[in-house]
Design goal:
Layout (H helix, E strand, L loop, with lengths): L7 H13 L11 H10 L5 H14 L3 H6 L2 H8 L6 H17 L7 H4 L7 H12 L8 H11 L10 H12 L5 H14 L17 H4 L16 E12 L2 E6 L10 E8 L5 H7 L1 H6 L4 E5 L4 E3 L3 E11 L13 E3 L1 H4 L6 H8 L5 H4 L5
Parallel strand pairs: 1-6
Antiparallel strand pairs: 1-2, 1-3, 2-3, 2-7, 4-6, 5-6
The protein binds a DNA duplex (11 and 11 nucleotides) through helix 2, helix 3, helix 6, helix 8 and helix 11.
EC number: 3.2.2.31
InterPro entries: A/G_AdeGlyc_MutY, DNA_glycosylase, Endonuclease-III-like_CS2, HhH-GPD_domain, HhH_base_excis_C, HhH_motif, MIG/MutY, MutY_C
Keywords: 4Fe-4S, DNA damage, DNA repair, Glycosidase, Hydrolase, Iron, Iron-sulfur, Metal-binding
Length: about 375
DNA sequence: AAGGCGGGGCG
DNA sequence: CGCCCAGCCTT
């Protein structure tokens, strides 16, 4: 029995592991070469996907010497289909380096291991603990997720400071006398129990888990959404009739909701004026007899998550054309439009076109 | 500090 | 289709 001064998390985790440990081949060895090989294969790779590659690689290259002597092309052929091919290149580099600089014996400490090509904080901790019993916690996606949930850590795991913070927490939890068991356990726990879609109903740690107790499992780990900068193409038409302009309030669930703007046609890509008019029924009607002028405008407007390519036209609509009932739009005096909230993009557009009579009569500045 | 690198499984 | 996986390296 272990001493009872372990954190409740650690006790519960190790207890769970005694009943649920997966029998994985790289756990049947203490050979740092085999362990290193498995860890590199498993970087960003599911066990089920990496397992056959590991077995085959160990069969073809049973020792670090055999790997070091192999042609890189042979290694690549065996790596093919596994992805992240720089792993194979670094694998070969490290094998040759271990043979040439370390007499074929892997360095035995975290600090030396992490110097090897393709060996980062996670892999160094894994080898150090599994092969040499050094008490360094592994901190991978599983550990981020588990600790964030259990302790309610709000730190964005994509932030540069996150690794240190989570490593510090894990360092407090890892038992000095059985670091390998702890590290294996926390990864099985992350894979089988506290997975991205966790099985809280059967979890022995749920009673002391912050996220579960607060019913906030969905909130952890905190991970900033990738702001996939989308390209958008805004085509503004400043429609004028009898000294008034056609405007509307943006109300949809989108940028600038609540602000006012001119007639907008958004397209999926850059379009010619003719295509835009053709695509838009209202424009088709109004353009039948109108005077159109291409306007200077901000070409590009950048938001945190969107790049907006902008073009604009001024359209003088004939007075005799009745287009009063456009849903959501209204004709307005320019001096009244001036008082309404507008996006910076639109303000810039106006500033660029103060020569238009409707603007220089009404807009201050 | 941010981006790139792969293929596959899952909801 | 987006997210995630036993991360690491480069810029």
């Amino acid at each position: 029995m272990q001493s009872t001064n372990h954190h409740p998390f650690t006790k519960g985790l190790l207890s769970w592991y005694r009943q649920h440990a997966r029998a994985l081949p790289w756990r049947q060895t203490q050979d740092p070469y085999a362990i290193w090989l498995s860890e590199v294969v498993l970087q960003q790779t599911r066990v089920a996907q990496g397992l056959p590659y590991y077995l085959k690689l160990l069969e073809v290259f049973p020792t670090v010497e055999s790997l070091a002597q192999a042609e890189e092309s042979v290694l690549f052929r065996h790596w093919q289909g596994l992805g992240y091919y720089s792993r194979a290149r670094n694998l070969h580099k490290t094998a040759k380096l271990v043979v040439s600089d370390y007499h074929g014996k892997f360095p035995a400490t975290y600090n030396d291991l992490i110097q090897l090509p393709g060996v980062g904080p996670y892999t160094a901790a894994a080898i150090a603990s599994f092969a040499f019993g050094e008490a360094k916690p592994v901190v991978d996606g599983n550990v981020f997720r588990i600790l964030a949930r259990y302790f309610g850590i709000e730190t964005d795991i994509l932030h540069s400071s996150a690794r240190k913070e989570f490593t510090d927490v894990a360092m407090e939890l890892i038992p000095q006398d059985q670091p390998a068991e702890f590290n294996q356990a926390i990864m099985d726990f992350g894979s089988l129990q506290c997975s991205p879609a966790p099985l809280c109903a059967s979890c022995p740690l749920s009673l002391t888990c912050f996220a579960f107790q607060q019913k906030r499992i969905q909130d952890f780990p905190v991970k900033q959404k990738k702001a996939k900068q989308k390209n958008r193409y805004f085509n503004y038409f400043i429609l004028e009739q009898g000294g008034q302009v056609l405007v509307r309030e943006r109300k949809e669930r989108d940028i600038w909701s609540g602000l006012w703007e001119f007639y907008l046609v958004e397209s999926a890509q850059e379009e010619e004026l003719e295509s835009l008019v053709e695509m838009d029924d209202n424009l088709s009607t109004m353009f039948s007899n109108a005077t159109v002028q291409f306007l200077k405008s901000p070409k590009l407007h950048i938001l945190s998550h969107q790049k907006i390519y902008c073009r604009a036209w001024h359209v003088q609509v004939p007075d005799n054309l009745d287009i009063s009932n456009l849903a959501g739009f209204q004709w307005i005096q320019p001096e009244d439009f001036e008082k309404l909230g507008k996006s910076v993009l639109l303000l810039n557009l106006i500033t660029d076109n103060l020569h238009l009579k409707i603007f220089n009569d009404s807009m201050p500045r």
